[in-house]
Amino acid sequence: MTPPRTILGATVFAALLVSACGGGGAGSGITSVAEEGVLRVVGLDTQDFDADGYRVDAGEVTVEYQLSGFQNHTLVVEGREDELRLEVENGGTDSGTIILEPGRYILYCDVAGHREGGMEARLLVE
Ligand SMILES: [Cu+2]
Hints:
By secondary structure, the protein is α/β, with parallel strands linked by helices. The chain has a single domain (28-125), classed as Immunoglobulin-like (Sandwich), CATH 2.60.40. It has one helix and ten strands, in the order H-E-E-E-E-E-E-E-E-E-E. It has one helix spanning 3-24, and strands at 31-33, 38-44, 48-49, 53-56, 59-68, 73-77, 85-88, 93-100, 103-108, 120-125. Strands 1-4-10-9-6-7 form a six-stranded mixed sheet, with helices on one face. The termini are far apart. The model is unreliable at 11-28 (pLDDT under 50). It binds copper (II) ion. Copper (II) ion binds at residues 47, 73, 109, 111, 114, 119.
């Protein structure tokens, strides 16, 4: 009666492999994973986010946006700008919710010139 245990072990191992890959992201980028439907994103005055990629479960996602800096920055989801637009400045925070179907999205800051300066990140919804 060993098959059940073997199958379980293989499943756990596969799950670890998947999470290890997700944590490493593609290439050298950092991927931040949402916990319990809450995606935490930190904006930086260097026109960047705290990760190159983020991952959340599909459905209602709460985004908590915190600024580590002083400049004005926003956070929107490409193609869904009408549904969520968070705005922070001077070390502030903002949060909101959006319903996302599985897919690949881009987060970016819509302040003029910031996205071009590198203030965008991947968002994987699964
Ligand atoms: Cu910005």
